[in-house]
Amino acid sequence: MPDRREDAARLQQLADAARRAEAAEAQRLIDAFVEAARERGLAPEPLRATLYGGASVRTDKVGWYLNSSRSVAIGYDGSYYQLVVGGGVRERLRGVRLEASEPSLVIGRGARDGESGDLAEFLARVLDRPAP
Predict the structure, then answer these.
(1) Count of helices and strands (H, E) across the chain
(2) Torsion sign, CA atoms 65, 67, 71, 73
(3) pLDDT reported for residue 116
(4) Which phi and psi angles does 6 have, rounded to 5°?
(5) Residue 92's CB: how many other CB atoms inside 10 A?
(6) Would you tell me how many other CB atoms lie within 10 Å of the CB of residue 7?
(7) How far apart are CA 21 and CA 107, in angstroms?
(8) What is the reported pTM?
(9) How far apart are CA 126 and CA 83, in angstroms?
């Protein structure tokens, strides 16, 4: 008879598998987006991050912002970035090196700022923007 630890471990394995499958599907959408953005001539822009304290800092990446608060972006290389990061004075002066995050099919899951929704919809909005 399985014990609680085995049940918990099995549930964790199932949750991890579901998360990986979602990330793989999200990455397929992102890859198609990057290809379409390049074909349409949508130029990427230097990405900026926001420190937890509210300061805006430069980053080492270029890409496309997905939401109006500029807290989520897709890098030119197809990476998914959360742009709210930790840091202090050093990061204000030197900027930050972004680390890619595992993408999700839902942006802002659980957020109450009105900027949550399907990744596909956010990507489509960027593609629908007029090219400069």
Answers:
(1) 3, 7
(2) negative
(3) 84
(4) -65, -40
(5) 15
(6) 10
(7) 16
(8) 0.86
(9) 17
Task: Copy the structure tokens of residue 79.
Answer: 């990476």
- pLDDT mean values, one per 10 residues, the chain (132 residues): 83 92 97 97 96 95 95 97 92 93 88 78 92 62
| Cα 96 from Cα 90, distance rounded (Å) | 9
Q: What pLDDT was estimated at residue 7?
A: 85
Q: Please, are residues 37 and 64 in contact by the beta-carbon 8 Å criterion?
A: yes
What is the DSSP pairing of strand 72-75 with strand 80-82?
antiparallel
Backbone angles phi, psi at 76, to 5 degrees: -55, -30
The single residue listed with the structure tokens 């709210």 is 84
**In the block, residue with structure tokens 């990455």:** 27
SS3 60: strand
